[in-house]
Amino acid sequence: MADFYQNGVVTTLHNLDERPIEDLEEELLSFSRKRPMAVLLPSLFSELEGPALSNIIQNIAQVPYLSQIVIGLDRADQAQYQYALKFFDTLPQHHRILWNDGPRLKAIDAELAELGLAPKELGKGRNVWYCMGYILASGKAESVALHDCDILTYDRHLLARLIYPVANPNFNYEFCKGYYARVADGKINGRVSRLLVTPLLRALKRIVGESEYLEFMDSFRYPLAGEFSFRRDVLNDIRIPSDWGLEIGVLSEMHRNYSHNRLCQVDIAKTYDHKHQDLSLHNDQGGLSKMSIDITKALFRKLATQGQTFSSETFRSLKATYFRIALDFIETYHNDAVMNGLKLDIHNEEKAVEMFAQNIMKAGQSFLDNPMETPFIPSWNRVVSAAPDILERLKNAVEEDYLEFRG
């Protein structure tokens, strides 16, 4: 059971009483009459063949309050898209699949590329962005939850608690971030959040000084969680990164667009386990190594927009300060693990911190070398201003794929 402590500037909604799922869903069903709800599922085709997604779909099929399910499907040919149609056909709720590799959606992407408005990188950010456009186009939902498709510990509580803050018409939240304990198989996971993001934010406070933005980011208990929910109007203005900076970028956009009292975080699971990325010690273009560089650059870019200047000397000081703070965190997490009867490999933790420290320098150099780099995908407001009928055509393309290939 969580405590009830409020830290930082963002409201934390705890799990204080293990409320029964039936009570939650009954209340959400009543909310749905005023605020129809949807869930957005960004998926690789390979996840349809993995151990997690079948259980996720079995759980979602029992959810009574959803008006819409939107699935973004990446890395799928025609046969795999048709397989996906059958895979998701067990869902009783209205659902559609965006076949991102299909000719219709690729044609729309090519048209936007000519206008300089298409996502520049393949990946989750691009997938989520097109799904957000489809949700805007379809107009079926007012409140939307987004979560990954590789959650091994998934149950309906996660979705209910995630969407509740933006679905309750008596709450004024526009955005909600999920958090949880990353514990599985007797050990503490979540290395990038624990050993990079939090100590890096603390180090930045020392190097660049106290900052309202850094305090905001440091208020989130799990800033890299892939689970969040939002009201539909959030989708018009948000610009999301197409790289591994997606979660940091989304939080930064919420900071830019909304006051703190319109944002919250919620405890959505006792434990949480999903597919683990390789540390990639010798390849900074993959795994947690690339993730750490993209995340660090996202923080540097945001601080630069607030007038912060950086130099090679700044990054050297930041690296040293980060390294000391992160090593202290390893001891903290080790003691926490021991007291709870869990394992934590200090040697592997220190290897991760050493790599993250090197990648802070790489991210800093990349930032200095490419000051005009803009990995953000344009907001849908901007896209619609350049191509006024694009949302309607996106919706039609998804529907035509469904009608042609459903069998």
* Strand arrangement, major sheet: 1-10-6-9-5-2-3-4
- What's the pLDDT, averaged over the residues? 94
CATH topology: Spore Coat Polysaccharide Biosynthesis Protein SpsA, Chain A
Uncertain segments are: none
Going by CATH, the architecture would be Alpha-Beta Complex
Supply the CATH class: Alpha Beta
Strand proportion, as a percent range, falls in 5-15%
Order of helices and strands: EHEHEHEHHEHEEEHHEHHEHHHHH
The fourth-level CATH homologous superfamily is Spore Coat Polysaccharide Biosynthesis Protein SpsA, Chain A
Helix residue percentage: 40-55%
* Shape assignment: globular
The first-to-last residue Cα distance is 48 Å
Per DSSP E runs of 2 or more residues, the count of β-strands stands at 10
> Which structural class do the helices and strands define?
alpha/beta
Number of domains: 1
In angstroms, what is the radius of gyration?
Answer: 21 Å
Notable traits:
single chain, 407 residues, alpha/beta, Spore Coat Polysaccharide Biosynthesis Protein SpsA, Chain A, eight-stranded mixed sheet, two-stranded antiparallel sheet, 15 helices
Overview of the molecule:
There is one protein chain. The protein has 407 residues and is of the alpha/beta class. The chain has one domain (11-405): Spore Coat Polysaccharide Biosynthesis Protein SpsA, Chain A (Alpha-Beta Complex), CATH 3.90.550.10. Helices cover 50% and strands 13% of the residues. The protein has helices at 21-31, 53-60, 78-88, 103-114, 124-138, 156-167, 191-208, 212-217, 234-237, 246-257, 287-305, 312-339, 346-369, 380-386, 390-405, and strands at 11-13, 37-44, 66-74, 95-99, 143-146, 175-181, 183-184, 187-188, 228-231, 263-271. An eight-stranded mixed β-sheet has the order 1-10-6-9-5-2-3-4, sandwiched between helices. It is globular, with a radius of gyration of 21 Å. The chain starts with 10 loop residues before the first strand and ends with a helix. The model has no long low-confidence stretch (mean pLDDT 94).
